[in-house]
């Protein structure tokens, strides 16, 4: 059989090179882009997941709708108040549960609109799970279309504006009508929107409820 001519051999070699190059291109794999790092830890996701042990539904909180500063966390908090004291700072939108050693467990909260706040020192005189809610006479007078229909009260449940827990604050033995309570609107945490009370995410108010006894001291700072 006759030898291939030089041009023929060159063409054959080029064809083999192109074929090899084509195979190389086909077998290459582009690595997927790395997943974006989450702003939230696994502990945060667990803390604010759905709560399955309650008599009413407590859905998971969409953390992407919250600022990380509003999540429950231990912080430095040197203070003269004794451990176990609750300190509400409406200006910063935080509630602190004072701990030993200059620390506190800090919760993000929603606060009352200007002119509707309570300030001073009080005591948790009553604790309630899935509390009944009744708007105050002032609330009914200010917004009758919104509140008058509930003048007889609303039973506890997932649509109740007091949420899963409520702490009732008394001063000198009298009800201040000021509450620390849950909310079914977690996107309002960090805002001044309530009718004077302190609202917390349901997951947080359940946690706080389990940590403090009846009779706990509460200090509400001026806004």
From TrEMBL:
Keyword Glycosyltransferase on entry: yes
Residue numbers annotated as active site: 181, 197
Annotated L,D-TPase catalytic domain residues: 84-221
SUPFAM superfamilies: L,D-transpeptidase catalytic domain-like
Functional pathway: Cell wall biogenesis; peptidoglycan biosynthesis
Pfam families, per the entry: YkuD (PF03734)
A molecular function GO annotation: acyltransferase activity
EC number of the protein: 2.3.2.-
Keywords carried by this UniProt record: Acyltransferase, Cell shape, Cell wall biogenesis/degradation, Glycosyltransferase, Hydrolase, Peptidoglycan synthesis, Transferase
PROSITE patterns, sorted: LD_TPASE
Record carries keyword Cytoplasm: no
Similarity annotation: Belongs to the YkuD family.
Protein name: L,D-transpeptidase
């Amino acid at each position: 059989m006759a030898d291939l001519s030089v041009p023929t051999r060159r063409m054959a070699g080029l064809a083999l090179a192109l074929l090899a190059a084509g195979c190389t291109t086909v077998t290459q794999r582009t690595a997927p882009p790395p997943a974006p790092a989450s702003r939230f830890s696994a502990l945060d996701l667990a803390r604010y997941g759905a709560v399955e042990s309650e008599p009413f539904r407590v859905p998971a909180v969409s953390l992407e709708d919250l600022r990380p500063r509003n999540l429950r966390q231990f912080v430095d908090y040197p203070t003269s108040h004794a451990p176990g004291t609750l300190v509400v700072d409406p200006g910063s939108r935080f509630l602190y549960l004072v701990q030993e050693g200059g620390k506190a467990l800090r919760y993000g909260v929603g606060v009352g609109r200007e002119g509707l706040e309570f300030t001073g020192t009080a005591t948790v005189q009553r604790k309630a799970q899935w509390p009944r809610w009744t708007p105050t006479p002032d609330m009914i007078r200010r917004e009758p279309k919104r509140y008058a229909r509930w003048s007889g009260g609303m039973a506890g449940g997932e649509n109740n504006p007091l949420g899963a827990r409520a702490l009732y604050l008394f001063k000198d033995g009298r009800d201040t009508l000021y509450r620390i309570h849950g909310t079914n609107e977690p996107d309002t945490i960090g805002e001044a929107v309530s009718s004077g009370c302190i609202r917390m995410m349901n997951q947080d108010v359940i946690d706080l409820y389990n940590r403090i006894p009846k009779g706990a001291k509460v200090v509400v700072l001026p806004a």
